[in-house]
Amino acid sequence: MKNKQTLLIAATGLVVGALAVLLTLNGNPANMGFCIACFLRDTAGALGLHKAAVVQYARPEIIGLVLGAFIMSVAGKEFAAKGGSSPMTRFVLGFFVMVGALMFLGCPLRMVLRIAGGDLNAVVGLIGFVCGILGGIFFLKNGFTLKRTYTLSRLEGTWMPILSLGVLALLLLAPSLLAFSESGPGSMHAPVMMAQAAGLIVGALAYKTRLCMVGGIRDAVLFGDFYLLYGFVAIIIAALIGNLAIGSFNLGFDGQPVAFNDGLWNFLGMALTGLGSALLGGCPLRQLILAGSGNSDSAVTVMGMIVGSAFCHNFGLASSADGPTSAGKIAVIIGFAVVIVIGLANMRKEKV
Amino acid sequence: MNTLDARGYSCPEPVIMTKKALEKGLPLTVMVDGVTPLNNITRFAQNKGYKVESRAVGEDYELTISK
Questions:
Q1: Cβ distance A267 to A132 under 8 Å?
Q2: Which one of A15, A195, A226, A258 has the lowest number of neighbouring Cβ atoms within 10 Å?
Q3: CA distance B46 to A199
Q4: Considering only CB atoms, which chain A residues are within 8 Å of B10?
Q5: Residue A31: which domain range?
Q6: Chain B: residues touching A (Cβ < 8 Å)
Q7: Does a cis peptide bond (omega within 30 degrees of 0) precede residue A161?
Q8: Domain range for residue B53?
Q9: Burial of A352 (0-12, 13-18, 19+ CB in 10 A)
Q10: Which of A321, A181, A322 is nearest to A258 (CA)?
Q11: Over the stretch B5-45, which tens digit does the pLDDT of each residue have?
Q12: Contact check, Cβ <8 Å, B16/A352
């Protein structure tokens, strides 16, 4: 049983890494086969929630991830509509997880893919990510909780899959209603059907294995449990082999695709994302998967990330290949303050 | 009998709660409301060398952890 689980998550990691390379080979931006932060941001742009012309595209990968998890959970009779665990706090955490990710230029999954592409700035990001998770573990050990969830109506748990189908319908049937980038990362994408299929496969596997970038490091530190970390490492191995095979491995700090080399802000951006995600109980990928399988708290978190991404571009908080912005730096510092207050305000009186 | 109701809590909280409850004595009965905490607690307890039995109770699961 245990070995079978371990094999499945290692295989899942290999599939995610391989599909990520396949997607970049077929049009996605470099080291961006999957990026939950970037793709939610692009989707927000396609829907007109922000006006940054270079990052607008309704990413089918996101839709596929949600629907893959939905189909898998329904098929396994595990779909359960649950919510009510501090939804607004989760919205705010989702917002600042996105602020951190768009400072660094990638969610934790893209951080892993950037490492596999030889981008050493992402190794700096990883150090920040680990520090952020360690901060989250401090709060968890001291009784941090967003309180329990309750069983809700099936419709309440189905909104994220429904909204995803709505965006897919717009993309396929009425694309003229959406905004599409003509240049920049938003204009670079794999064919719709390929991206959709890759999303569905990864969504189904990630649901089944509970693949989570935050959970891997958290469980290893907190419980000495390396199960989720195998998935994390397998993604790096598969994407590294893939990048070497197609000649897109480029070791160094400078000239990395959709990245900048300011170590301090790469570190702090991912530290904020790690801390916020640890308090949420999972990375942005995991939030999407949970939202697809009936968890309305995670659906609210995803909404927080989408609104956060729109704010990042409407207020000039998001970094670019030229580096971080002053407004973005201020937002990250505010983010740390807000997330730490959330951590302190939600600790049980009695330690667990 | 040492019991813990971890229903409604999302991971890793049920595992942290179990870890703490195990200090109060064995056997420990834990109630959870999903397969994720069921699998996580089972793996945690087995990694620590405990025996784990589980059964479905309505829509929830009951785990019994012993030496």
A1: no
A2: A226
A3: 33
A4: 85, 146, 149, 281, 295, 297
A5: 2-345
A6: 7-13, 15-17, 19-20, 33-36, 39, 43-44, 46-47, 59
A7: no
A8: 2-66
A9: middle
A10: A321
A11: 999 999 899 999 999 999 998 999 999 999 899 999 999 99
A12: yes
* Position A351 in a domain: no
User: Which one, of A201, A218, A84, lies nearest residue B33 by Cα?
Assistant: A84
Which amino acid appears at position A239 of this protein?
A
Residues of chain B contacting A295 with CB distance shorter than 8 Å = 10
Min distance B67 CA to chain A CA atoms (Å) = 18
How many CB contacts within 8 angstroms connect chain A with chain B?
Answer: 58
Q: Is residue A227 less than 8 Å (CB to CB) from chain B?
A: yes
For chain B, what is the domain count? Answer: 1
Check the CA dihedral A298-A71-A68-A161 and report its sign: negative
- Residues A19-76: tens digit of each pLDDT: 999 999 999 999 999 999 999 999 999 999 999 999 999 999 999 999 999 999 999 9
A349 touches chain B (CB under 8 A): no
**Reduced to 3 states, what is the DSSP secondary structure of residue B60?**
strand
CB atoms A223 and B15 under 8 Å: yes
- Does A155 map to a domain? yes
